[in-house]
């Protein structure tokens, strides 16, 4: 127990424990299964958001194409589910039974070769991680080895998002086109649409998300995390200290892609469909907004950001469907202008010091002391908040919520 | 003497930017254990020369040999791993990290992606960081955020980061720029200490400082070497007086 406590303190995971309690206990107890399933859906975007914390917050590389990797992971899972849903018996009215319905509509009479691996669950699960990682490696290797970065990299990721969307929509017979893959029902005969299955999938999603955060936290506290921060500040200094800078960026980008892929797969499982509307430019930018609102230096903050923005989106788009996009844009601009470190930054820089100084002041008031000392204590208390994060620099301490 | 005996052998090195030759068929040899100072007017190509040696700029023609290995086509990080360290003109340190972390990151192990993931800050690393920090006068500032250091301390920190790598060739671009008289004094002592067992190239303008530290001085002008030799010899050279030192 004590070892666990020490471990939590070492990696500053107190905030993560709080998040885990909220997701695994509070929300399931207070929300009905419909809403909980909705939260589960939002949490799949959180995988993308924490990937962005690594790539953008830590690595300093803004990617506006994370939807691509989310989509690839999602499609890999959806292809498996679709094949299972298209068994010869339930598709016997098709002219070619046993292939997905959209193939039949597009006069395809045989399952294309690239679909074959997706008959196997292990291969599909491997593809969920391998396919996004491989594409991320190709893109980032080509870019970072040539020292393309910043805005140019962001534009290229946008282009990749656009290309993939066009490809998916254009190849309707192979991909389901603009409708995507619908009617996903079972995993190895297990019905994913029942309430109990939804609970299980929700908890699977929470567990994987917590695992992903712990993994990212480990990377942040390793030398690699320090190097990423160093590169963001003085790339040349890192290069001329004997490091191949590009490799570190490639690794981080691939990591974010793999996480996004897992998120996408969980989306397909929980929501029961996958479509190009989660791949393109707009969803990719929305995912950046989640990370920005939550705080791009804070893994836990990014999860809260994702939940809040999506909750807002659901609420506002039900109430003011026409205004939603403007509200979203306003939110993004407002947050980045006023709170560049997002919610986590607000918490760390304003709420925590305020709370500490208040507690300090109350303590001072309790003992008979000169009245002036309460005022003096305030700045001292806010300074005392810092040693919480001896190993982590600016804005990162926001993890110690 | 064959060029294998030199720490660094630069021969016929040329770099041209759109036809302008910033370095023009330059030949320069630096001995092991030598502290060489390069002086010259602005635009003489001093910094460009260091850029070429460390790989920041690619040579148009000519050869750079370090420990008898050709460098011109080698990637920057590989040159560093061979033993070349370079300090930039403006202090180039990681402002958001602590002094300790700045030095720790410069420790030459765990340089690959997975090496960095597995890297552990062992006692040996800590001792080395402490030793270097003491050497550069920042022994009691290990936990300070590097951005909060004074300008002179930042310069020292960057030198310390290079010392962590134990380079065999150390190149310092204006190490005392912006330093107080006392800090210059300390830096001169530091340089004299650290040029043991390694070659050091320093670019500097301050003649008093140069006189104190230099074993040998090279004067550059318009991408070429104007004069080379001891400080006294160079100072007496009429060409040098003409273009650089003034009458």
Task: Supply database-style keywords.
heterodimer; A: 401 residues; mainly alpha; two-stranded antiparallel sheet; 71% helix; B: alpha/beta
Question: How would you describe the overall organization of this protein?
Answer:
The complex is a heterodimer of chains A (401) and B (247). Chain A has 17 helices and two strands. Chain A is an all-alpha fold. The longest helix of chain A has 27 residues, at 195-221. Residues 369-401 of chain A have low confidence and may be disordered. By secondary structure, chain B is an alpha/beta fold. In chain B, a hairpin with a 2-residue loop joins β1 (8-17) and β2. In chain B, α3 crosses α5, α3 (99-105) runs parallel beside α6 and α5 (123-135) packs across α6. The radius of gyration of chain B is 18 Å and the shape is globular. The mean pLDDT of chain B is 90. At the A-B interface, α10, α11 and α12 of A face α2, α3 and α4 of B.
User: Mind describing the biggest β-sheet of chain B?
Assistant: 6 strands, mixed
| Helix-residue proportion of chain A | over 70%
Tally of individual helices of chain A: 17
Could you tell me the radius of gyration of chain B in angstroms? 18 Å
The strand order across the widest sheet of chain A is 1-2
> What topology, given as strand order, has the largest sheet of chain B?
6-7-8-3-9-10
Q: Unreliable segments of chain A (pLDDT under 50, ≥5 consecutive)?
A: 369-401
Strand content of chain A: under 5%
Overall pLDDT of chain A = 87
Q: Report the structural category of chain B.
A: alpha/beta
Note the run of SSEs of chain A as H and E.
Answer: HHHHHHHHEEHHHHHHHHH
Helix content of chain B: 25-40%
Cα-to-Cα separation, first versus last residue of chain A? 21 Å
As an assembly, this protein is heterodimer
Short description:
The complex is a heterodimer of chains A (401) and B (247). Chain A has 401 residues and is mainly α.
């Amino acid at each position: 127990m004590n070892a666990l406590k020490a471990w939590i303190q070492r990696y500053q995971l107190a905030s993560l424990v709080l998040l885990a309690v909220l997701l695994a206990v509070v929300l399931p107890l207070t929300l009905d299964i419909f809403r909980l399933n909705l939260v589960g859906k939002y949490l799949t975007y959180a995988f993308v958001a924490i990937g962005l914390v690594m790539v953008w917050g830590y690595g300093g590389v803004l990617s506006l194409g994370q939807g691509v990797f989310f989509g690839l992971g999602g499609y890999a899972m959806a292809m498996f589910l679709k094949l299972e849903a298209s068994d010869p018996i339930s598709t016997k009215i098709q002219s070619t039974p046993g292939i997905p319905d959209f193939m039949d509509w597009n006069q395809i009479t045989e399952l294309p070769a690239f679909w074959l691996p997706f008959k196997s669950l292990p291969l599909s699960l491997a593809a969920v991680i391998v396919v996004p990682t491989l594409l991320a490696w190709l893109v980032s290797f080509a870019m970072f080895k040539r020292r393309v970065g910043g805005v140019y990299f962001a534009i290229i990721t946008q282009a990749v998002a656009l290309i993939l969307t066009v490809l998916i929509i254009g190849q309707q017979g192979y991909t389901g086109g603009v409708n995507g893959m619908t009617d996903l029902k079972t995993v190895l005969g297990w019905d994913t649409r029942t309430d109990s299955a939804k609970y299980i999938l929700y908890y699977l999603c929470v567990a994987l998300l917590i695992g992903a955060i712990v993994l990212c936290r480990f990377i942040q506290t390793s030398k690699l995390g320090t190097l990423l921060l160093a590169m963001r500040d003085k790339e040349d200094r890192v290069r001329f200290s004997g490091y191949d800078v590009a490799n570190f960026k490639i690794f981080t980008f691939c990591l974010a892609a793999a996480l996004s892929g897992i998120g996408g797969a969980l989306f397909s499982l929980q929501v029961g469909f996958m479509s190009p509307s989660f791949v393109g430019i707009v969803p990719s930018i929305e995912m950046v907004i989640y990370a920005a609102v939550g705080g791009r230096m804070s893994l836990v903050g990014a999860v809260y950001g994702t939940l809040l923005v999506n909750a807002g989106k659901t609420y506002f788009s039900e109430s003011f469907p026409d205004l939603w996009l403007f509200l979203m844009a306003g939110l993004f601009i407002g947050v980045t202008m006023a709170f560049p470190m997002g919610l986590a930054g607000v918490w760390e820089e304003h709420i925590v010091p305020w709370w500490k100084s208040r507690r300090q002041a109350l303590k001072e008031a309790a003992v008979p002391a000169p009245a002036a000392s309460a005022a003096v204590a305030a700045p001292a208390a806010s300074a005392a908040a810092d040693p919480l994060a001896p190993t982590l620099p600016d804005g990162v301490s926001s993890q110690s919520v | 003497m064959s060029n294998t005996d030199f720490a660094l052998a630069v021969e016929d090195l040329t770099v041209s930017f759109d036809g302008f030759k910033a370095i023009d068929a330059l030949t320069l040899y630096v001995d092991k254990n030598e502290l060489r100072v390069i002086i010259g007017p602005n635009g003489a190509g001093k910094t460009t020369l260091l850029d070429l040696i460390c790989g920041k700029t690619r040579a148009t023609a000519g050869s750079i040999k370090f420990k008898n290995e050709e460098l011109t086509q080698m990637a920057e990080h590989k040159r560093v791993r061979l033993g070349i360290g370079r300090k930039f003109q403006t202090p180039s340190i990681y402002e958001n990290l602590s002094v300790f972390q700045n030095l720790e990151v410069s420790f030459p192990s765990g340089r690959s992606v997975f090496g960095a993931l597995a890297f552990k800050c062992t006692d040996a690393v800590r001792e080395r960081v402490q030793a270097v920090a003491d050497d550069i006068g920042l022994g009691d500032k290990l936990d300070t955020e590097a951005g909060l250091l004074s300008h002179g301390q930042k310069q020292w920190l960057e030198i310390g980061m290079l010392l962590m790598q134990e380079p065999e060739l150390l190149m310092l671009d204006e190490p005392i720029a912006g330093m107080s008289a006392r800090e210059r004094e300390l830096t001169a002592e530091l340089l004299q200490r650290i040029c043991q067992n390694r070659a050091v190239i320093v670019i500097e303008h301050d003649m008093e400082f140069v006189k104190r530290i230099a074993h040998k001085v090279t004067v550059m002008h318009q991408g070429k070497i104007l004069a080379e030799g001891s400080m006294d010899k160079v100072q007496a050279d009429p060409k040098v007086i003409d273009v650089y030192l003034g009458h």
